[in-house]
Amino acid sequence: MARSDITGKRRMKAHNVSHSNIKTNRWQHVNVQRRRVWVPELSRFVTLNLTTRDIRTIDKLGLVAYAKRYGVSLAKF
Q1: Cα torsion 20, 22, 24, 30: sign
Q2: N or C: which terminal CB in the chain sees fewer CB atoms within 10 Å?
Q3: Domain ranges in the chain?
Q4: What is the pTM of this model?
């Protein structure tokens, strides 16, 4: 299943709504990318499944600060 390793974001349930207003179930998938990210504090690369929103925020804050915000240890990756 497509899921972010840091935030845990995954698909959500939504509705298709027809012209006659009939609602049928469907899934909204998150845009998950597999990325290899350099962690200077660990002096190594870490491969993570990240949403595109995660990637943008990591560019701003840094990976360690972002993982700390969500209480995730990077040592297990």
Answers
A1: positive
A2: N
A3: 12-70
A4: 0.83
User: Class for domain 12-70, per CATH?
Assistant: mainly beta
> Within 10 A of 74 (CB to CB), how many other CB atoms are there?
19
CB atoms within 10 A of CB 67: 22
**In whole angstroms, what is the distance from residue 63 CA to residue 42 CA?**
11
Other CB atoms within 10 Å distance of the CB of residue 51 = 20
Euclidean distance between CA atoms 47 and 42, whole angstroms: 13
Closest CA to 55 of 76, 75, 29, 34: 34
* Distance, first Cα to last Cα, the chain: 18
Q: Is the pLDDT of residue 1 over 90?
A: no
